[in-house]
Design goal:
single chain; globular; 6% helix; mainly beta; 65 residues; 5 strands; SH3 type barrels; two-stranded antiparallel sheet
Amino acid sequence: MSGTIIFETKNMLAMQTTEGIKKISKRSANKMRLILPSNACFIRGESLIGRPEDRVSNVRKVGFN
């Protein structure tokens, strides 16, 4: 399934697809590909569980050496 994420709750993503709006559980999403303007990345849906505003404070710091 492909589409644009239009809304997010603690446990669900709402996506606009060609067939209409679809709701997907974050827990059931094994592998998602996110396409960004400069590149693409893969992420597990379980890592997105939680309120979007609370995830900002849970970001791990990564050092570049």
